[in-house]
Specification:
The structure is a single chain. The protein is mostly helical. The protein has a two-stranded antiparallel ribbon. Strands 3-4 form a two-stranded antiparallel sheet. A hairpin with a 6-residue loop joins strand 1 and strand 2. The termini are close together.
């Protein structure tokens, strides 16, 4: 059901350039591949129902980022069908304890090993991106939203958003590499307290999907990537970049209006995700 809705939704779009994202027609081809793979897995006699969705996701992950994320979106829509308590479980997963305690006996060598294991991806970034710290992200005075500004033109004045994880991690690594390998972390931070935030982030970084693997402070960084992630969390869709600085999106497309609620009453179903364009037919 959801695969058919997804294909109809994206086939209803355009093939306009949506770089760095796939355009709607390209995503419709992704949805078709997902559907074909799902049918192939269902037909396999050696796979159980409990293994089906896991195998489907793993095949989607191997196909690419867009495919994997679309697969996850579809699996989430199955939630109420599979488990009526799933919403409560998801709510609990969204409650995050951000308190972090640093083991004072952690040595510089152990911290470097941890950094290699959890932040080795920094070395895989383009060097200009990884080393870049041209920008602050600060809260604006006018509407308290994050804004990217040049470090050379504006002091952060304690309004900076702690999104500069890559520069902080590189600075911490440089410090750890010059001290004695058996130096306890508490001695490192006592002498260089500016590395405390990075050290705490290093300790708490064992959470899956906890770190966007990019450097938003680099001059060559394109904010559209993280904008899409953030806005999708707010329920927006149909991402269309209009420049390097802003996106055109749709919010709540297909959602029932007030008149629809009065007319449908208790028969209303929560299945308005992935609608076709108004005036067209699925």
């Amino acid at each position: 059901h959801w695969l058919n809705k997804t294909i109809a939704h994206f086939e209803n779009g355009t093939d306009a350039d949506c770089t760095p994202f796939l355009n709607p027609l390209a995503v419709s081809e992704v949805a078709e591949r997902l559907g074909n793979e799902f049918e192939a897995l269902v037909a396999r006699p050696d796979i159980s129902t409990s293994e089906l969705f896991d195998a489907w996701y793993r095949s989607a992950e191997a196909d690419g980022v867009e495919t994997a994320e679309l697969c996850v979106s579809l699996l989430l829509e199955l939630g109420p069908t599979l488990d009526s308590d799933l919403d409560d479980e998801l709510d609990q997963l969204l409650v995050v304890d951000e308190s972090v305690e640093i083991d004072p006996s952690l040595t510089a060598r152990e911290a470097l090993d941890l950094m290699d294991a959890r932040f080795g991806w920094i070395d895989e970034l383009d060097q200009l991106i990884a080393a870049g710290d041209e920008y602050w992200w600060v809260m604006s005075d006018s509407n308290e939203e994050p804004r990217r500004v040049s470090r050379a033109s504006l002091e952060a004045d304690h309004r900076d958003v702690s999104i500069d994880i890559v520069p902080r991690m590189l600075a911490l690594r440089s410090e750890l590499e010059v001290v004695d390998s058996e130096t306890p972390m508490h001695d490192v931070l006592a002498g260089k307290p500016e590395h405390t935030l990075a050290a705490k982030r290093l300790i708490e970084s064992d959470r899956p999907f906890g770190e966007p693997r990019d450097n938003p402070c680099a001059g060559q960084y394109l904010p559209l990537q993280m904008q899409r992630f953030q806005l999708a969390m707010y329920g927006m869709d149909n991402f269309k970049p209009k420049s390097t600085d802003w996106l055109r999106v749709t919010l709540y497309q297909g959602a029932p209006r007030h008149a629809d609620l009065n007319e449908l009453g208790t028969t209303l179903r929560d299945d308005w995700v992935l609608p076709v364009r108004p005036g067209s037919h699925s």
